[in-house]
Amino acid sequence: MTLDAGDILDDLFHGCALDAFLEQAAGEQGWPDVEATRRRAYQIYEECLAVKNGETAGSRNHHQSLATENQPGRPQGRPQPERTLTMIYHVHIYREMRLKFDGIEARTPEAAAEIARDMPTDQADEIDDCDGVTLTALVDEAGDDEYERSVTVEFEYERERKASAEMLIALRAFIEADQMAEECGEWKWENLHHAFALARTAIANAGEQVANSPRRAS
Question: I need a labelling partner for 190 at 20 to 30 A (CA). Which of 70, 198, 200, 207 fits?
Answer without folding.
Answer: 207
